[in-house]
Amino acid sequence: MTDPKEFWLGYVPGATPAKWAQRWSERVTDVPLQLVQVSVSDQCAALVQRRVDAALVRLPPQRAEEWDLLSVVPLYDEMPVVVVPRGHFLCAGEEVTCADLADEAVWHPLDDMFAWECVGGVPGVPQLHRPATSSEAVDLVATGTGVTVVPMSVARLHHDPELVLRPLAAGPRSHVGIAWLAERSTDTDALLDEMVGIVKGRRANSSRGLRGQTSAMQKPAPKPTAKTPGRGKSRQPPARRKQPRKPGR
Protein backbone atom coordinates (compact mmCIF):
# COMPACT_ATOMS: atom_id res chain seq x y z
CA MET A 1 0.00 0.00 0.00
CA THR A 2 1.22 3.49 -0.80
CA ASP A 3 1.55 6.12 1.92
CA PRO A 4 -1.39 8.59 1.70
CA LYS A 5 1.04 11.35 2.76
CA GLU A 6 3.15 10.72 -0.35
CA PHE A 7 2.46 10.16 -4.03
CA TRP A 8 4.29 7.26 -5.67
CA LEU A 9 4.95 7.43 -9.41
CA GLY A 10 6.34 4.37 -11.15
CA TYR A 11 8.16 4.56 -14.47
CA VAL A 12 9.51 2.00 -16.91
CA PRO A 13 13.12 2.07 -18.17
CA GLY A 14 13.57 4.82 -20.73
CA ALA A 15 10.77 7.01 -19.37
CA THR A 16 12.02 10.33 -17.98
CA PRO A 17 9.83 11.60 -15.12
CA ALA A 18 12.32 14.26 -13.94
CA LYS A 19 10.61 17.26 -15.56
CA TRP A 20 7.22 16.20 -14.24
CA ALA A 21 8.68 15.62 -10.78
CA GLN A 22 10.00 19.20 -10.86
CA ARG A 23 6.56 20.57 -11.72
CA TRP A 24 5.01 18.49 -8.95
CA SER A 25 7.42 19.93 -6.37
CA GLU A 26 6.49 23.44 -7.52
CA ARG A 27 2.74 22.88 -7.40
CA VAL A 28 2.24 20.37 -4.56
CA THR A 29 4.58 21.53 -1.83
CA ASP A 30 3.02 19.57 1.03
CA VAL A 31 3.02 16.07 -0.54
CA PRO A 32 6.41 14.56 -1.52
CA LEU A 33 6.63 12.70 -4.84
CA GLN A 34 8.41 9.35 -4.71
CA LEU A 35 9.79 7.94 -7.98
CA VAL A 36 10.27 4.20 -8.36
CA GLN A 37 11.39 2.34 -11.47
CA VAL A 38 9.30 -0.67 -12.46
CA SER A 39 10.01 -3.20 -15.17
CA VAL A 40 7.72 -3.48 -18.18
CA SER A 41 6.74 -7.00 -17.10
CA ASP A 42 5.81 -5.69 -13.63
CA GLN A 43 4.15 -2.39 -14.58
CA CYS A 44 0.54 -3.62 -14.27
CA ALA A 45 1.17 -5.58 -11.07
CA ALA A 46 2.76 -2.54 -9.42
CA LEU A 47 -0.49 -0.63 -9.96
CA VAL A 48 -2.91 -3.44 -9.11
CA GLN A 49 -0.98 -4.24 -5.92
CA ARG A 50 -0.98 -0.53 -5.03
CA ARG A 51 2.79 -0.29 -4.83
CA VAL A 52 2.50 2.90 -6.87
CA ASP A 53 -0.32 5.42 -7.30
CA ALA A 54 0.30 5.91 -11.02
CA ALA A 55 2.92 4.81 -13.52
CA LEU A 56 4.48 5.78 -16.83
CA VAL A 57 4.00 2.55 -18.77
CA ARG A 58 4.69 1.03 -22.17
CA LEU A 59 1.43 0.13 -23.85
CA PRO A 60 1.20 -3.34 -25.39
CA PRO A 61 -0.24 -3.77 -28.89
CA GLN A 62 -2.81 -6.17 -27.44
CA ARG A 63 -3.88 -5.56 -23.87
CA ALA A 64 -4.28 -8.53 -21.55
CA GLU A 65 -7.14 -8.87 -19.06
CA GLU A 66 -5.20 -7.12 -16.29
CA TRP A 67 -5.30 -3.89 -18.29
CA ASP A 68 -9.08 -3.83 -17.82
CA LEU A 69 -8.40 -2.81 -14.20
CA LEU A 70 -6.52 0.31 -15.29
CA SER A 71 -7.27 3.72 -16.73
CA VAL A 72 -4.72 4.76 -19.35
CA VAL A 73 -3.92 8.05 -21.09
CA PRO A 74 -1.48 7.78 -24.05
CA LEU A 75 1.27 10.41 -23.90
CA TYR A 76 3.82 9.97 -26.69
CA ASP A 77 5.41 7.53 -29.14
CA GLU A 78 9.03 6.43 -29.53
CA MET A 79 10.77 5.29 -32.67
CA PRO A 80 12.41 1.85 -32.80
CA VAL A 81 16.17 1.69 -33.22
CA VAL A 82 18.42 -1.16 -34.25
CA VAL A 83 21.37 -1.73 -31.91
CA VAL A 84 24.41 -3.25 -33.63
CA PRO A 85 28.08 -3.72 -32.71
CA ARG A 86 30.44 -1.05 -34.02
CA GLY A 87 31.93 -2.14 -37.34
CA HIS A 88 28.82 -4.08 -38.39
CA PHE A 89 27.89 -3.52 -42.04
CA LEU A 90 24.55 -2.00 -40.94
CA CYS A 91 26.49 0.96 -39.52
CA ALA A 92 27.17 2.16 -43.07
CA GLY A 93 23.67 3.57 -43.63
CA GLU A 94 21.76 6.26 -41.76
CA GLU A 95 18.82 3.93 -41.16
CA VAL A 96 17.94 0.24 -41.36
CA THR A 97 14.93 -1.52 -42.90
CA CYS A 98 13.31 -4.79 -41.89
CA ALA A 99 14.62 -6.27 -45.14
CA ASP A 100 18.17 -5.38 -44.08
CA LEU A 101 17.70 -7.58 -41.01
CA ALA A 102 16.47 -10.62 -42.95
CA ASP A 103 19.59 -12.73 -42.32
CA GLU A 104 20.58 -11.23 -38.97
CA ALA A 105 20.39 -12.99 -35.61
CA VAL A 106 17.93 -10.82 -33.70
CA TRP A 107 17.50 -10.87 -29.92
CA HIS A 108 13.77 -10.54 -29.18
CA PRO A 109 13.26 -9.58 -25.51
CA LEU A 110 10.26 -10.78 -23.52
CA ASP A 111 9.28 -7.22 -22.59
CA ASP A 112 9.04 -6.18 -26.26
CA MET A 113 5.94 -4.01 -26.81
CA PHE A 114 6.22 -3.37 -30.55
CA ALA A 115 3.29 -4.33 -32.79
CA TRP A 116 5.40 -6.49 -35.12
CA GLU A 117 2.34 -8.00 -36.76
CA CYS A 118 1.90 -4.67 -38.55
CA VAL A 119 5.13 -5.27 -40.49
CA GLY A 120 4.82 -9.01 -41.03
CA GLY A 121 6.40 -10.21 -37.80
CA VAL A 122 9.67 -9.82 -35.94
CA PRO A 123 12.41 -9.12 -38.51
CA GLY A 124 15.53 -11.20 -38.95
CA VAL A 125 16.18 -14.61 -37.45
CA PRO A 126 14.83 -14.60 -33.87
CA GLN A 127 17.01 -16.53 -31.43
CA LEU A 128 15.65 -19.38 -29.34
CA HIS A 129 16.76 -17.66 -26.16
CA ARG A 130 14.73 -14.56 -25.40
CA PRO A 131 16.29 -12.06 -22.96
CA ALA A 132 13.99 -11.02 -20.12
CA THR A 133 14.35 -7.31 -20.85
CA SER A 134 15.32 -4.96 -23.66
CA SER A 135 18.32 -3.85 -21.60
CA GLU A 136 19.55 -7.44 -21.42
CA ALA A 137 19.16 -7.73 -25.19
CA VAL A 138 21.37 -4.66 -25.64
CA ASP A 139 23.95 -6.20 -23.30
CA LEU A 140 24.04 -9.31 -25.50
CA VAL A 141 24.66 -7.17 -28.59
CA ALA A 142 27.52 -5.50 -26.72
CA THR A 143 29.25 -8.90 -26.55
CA GLY A 144 29.36 -8.88 -30.36
CA THR A 145 26.53 -11.36 -30.83
CA GLY A 146 23.50 -10.52 -32.96
CA VAL A 147 21.44 -7.32 -33.06
CA THR A 148 18.26 -6.13 -31.36
CA VAL A 149 15.46 -3.59 -31.82
CA VAL A 150 14.44 -1.47 -28.82
CA PRO A 151 12.83 1.93 -28.14
CA MET A 152 15.20 4.85 -28.64
CA SER A 153 15.16 5.87 -24.97
CA VAL A 154 16.10 2.36 -23.81
CA ALA A 155 19.01 2.19 -26.26
CA ARG A 156 20.31 5.54 -25.02
CA LEU A 157 20.54 4.22 -21.47
CA HIS A 158 23.58 2.22 -22.59
CA HIS A 159 26.59 4.50 -23.00
CA ASP A 160 28.72 1.91 -24.75
CA PRO A 161 31.08 3.27 -27.43
CA GLU A 162 31.10 -0.18 -29.05
CA LEU A 163 27.39 0.02 -29.88
CA VAL A 164 25.81 1.89 -32.79
CA LEU A 165 22.15 2.92 -33.08
CA ARG A 166 20.26 3.16 -36.34
CA PRO A 167 16.54 4.04 -36.75
CA LEU A 168 14.37 1.22 -38.08
CA ALA A 169 12.60 2.75 -41.08
CA ALA A 170 8.83 2.17 -41.17
CA GLY A 171 9.07 0.11 -38.00
CA PRO A 172 6.33 -0.03 -35.33
CA ARG A 173 6.54 2.60 -32.62
CA SER A 174 6.55 2.15 -28.87
CA HIS A 175 3.66 3.88 -27.08
CA VAL A 176 4.11 5.40 -23.62
CA GLY A 177 1.24 6.47 -21.38
CA ILE A 178 0.28 7.12 -17.78
CA ALA A 179 -1.88 4.53 -16.03
CA TRP A 180 -3.63 4.18 -12.68
CA LEU A 181 -6.25 1.94 -11.08
CA ALA A 182 -9.60 2.51 -12.76
CA GLU A 183 -11.36 2.46 -9.38
CA ARG A 184 -9.55 5.69 -8.50
CA SER A 185 -11.24 8.62 -10.19
CA THR A 186 -9.48 11.85 -11.10
CA ASP A 187 -12.76 13.59 -10.26
CA THR A 188 -12.48 12.66 -6.58
CA ASP A 189 -8.74 12.05 -6.08
CA ALA A 190 -7.11 15.49 -6.17
CA LEU A 191 -3.49 14.26 -6.09
CA LEU A 192 -4.05 11.75 -8.87
CA ASP A 193 -5.81 14.39 -10.93
CA GLU A 194 -2.89 16.78 -10.39
CA MET A 195 -0.34 14.21 -11.58
CA VAL A 196 -2.35 13.30 -14.67
CA GLY A 197 -2.79 16.99 -15.39
CA ILE A 198 0.95 17.64 -15.07
CA VAL A 199 1.99 14.94 -17.53
CA LYS A 200 -0.73 16.07 -19.96
CA GLY A 201 0.59 19.63 -19.87
CA ARG A 202 -2.08 21.30 -17.75
CA ARG A 203 -1.07 24.78 -16.60
CA ALA A 204 -0.39 25.45 -12.95
CA ASN A 205 -3.23 27.97 -12.60
CA SER A 206 -5.82 25.82 -14.35
CA SER A 207 -9.16 25.90 -12.54
CA ARG A 208 -8.99 22.10 -12.35
CA GLY A 209 -5.53 21.99 -10.74
CA LEU A 210 -4.85 22.17 -7.01
CA ARG A 211 -3.40 25.68 -7.24
CA GLY A 212 -6.36 26.95 -9.24
CA GLN A 213 -8.83 25.44 -6.78
CA THR A 214 -6.95 26.93 -3.82
CA SER A 215 -6.90 30.37 -5.43
CA ALA A 216 -10.62 30.20 -6.08
CA MET A 217 -11.29 29.25 -2.45
CA GLN A 218 -9.09 32.05 -1.13
CA LYS A 219 -10.55 34.74 -3.38
CA PRO A 220 -12.53 37.15 -1.19
CA ALA A 221 -16.21 37.46 -1.88
CA PRO A 222 -17.28 40.79 -3.38
CA LYS A 223 -18.44 43.30 -0.79
CA PRO A 224 -22.12 44.25 -0.94
CA THR A 225 -22.69 47.71 -2.32
CA ALA A 226 -24.54 50.03 0.07
CA LYS A 227 -27.63 51.47 -1.51
CA THR A 228 -28.38 55.17 -1.12
CA PRO A 229 -32.02 55.70 -0.20
CA GLY A 230 -33.93 57.30 -2.99
CA ARG A 231 -31.14 56.87 -5.56
CA GLY A 232 -32.56 56.35 -8.98
CA LYS A 233 -35.88 57.97 -8.15
CA SER A 234 -36.86 61.45 -9.30
CA ARG A 235 -36.83 63.95 -6.46
CA GLN A 236 -40.10 65.67 -5.65
CA PRO A 237 -40.02 69.28 -4.42
CA PRO A 238 -40.86 69.55 -0.72
CA ALA A 239 -44.51 70.22 0.02
CA ARG A 240 -45.25 73.91 0.68
CA ARG A 241 -46.40 74.49 4.22
CA LYS A 242 -49.66 76.36 4.47
CA GLN A 243 -49.63 79.51 6.58
CA PRO A 244 -52.56 80.00 9.01
CA ARG A 245 -54.95 82.76 7.99
CA LYS A 246 -55.03 85.86 10.16
CA PRO A 247 -58.35 86.78 11.83
CA GLY A 248 -60.42 89.46 10.14
CA ARG A 249 -59.31 88.68 6.65
Description:
The protein has 249 residues and is an alpha/beta fold. It folds into two domains: 7-77 and 175-206, D-Maltodextrin-Binding Protein, domain 2, CATH 3.40.190; 80-172, D-Maltodextrin-Binding Protein, domain 2 (3-Layer(aba) Sandwich), CATH 3.40.190. Helices cover 19% and strands 22% of the residues. It contains six helices and ten strands, in the order βαβαβββββαβαββαα. The strands form two sheets. It has a five-stranded mixed sheet. A five-stranded mixed sheet has the order 7-6-8-5-9. Helix 1 links the parallel strand 1 (7-11) and strand 2 (33-37). The longest helix is centred in the first third of the chain and has 10 residues, at 18-27. The protein is elongated, with a radius of gyration of 32 Å.
List the main descriptive attributes of the protein structure presented here:
22% strand, five-stranded mixed β-sheet, elongated, alpha/beta, 249 residues, D-Maltodextrin-Binding Protein, domain 2, 2 domains, 6 helices
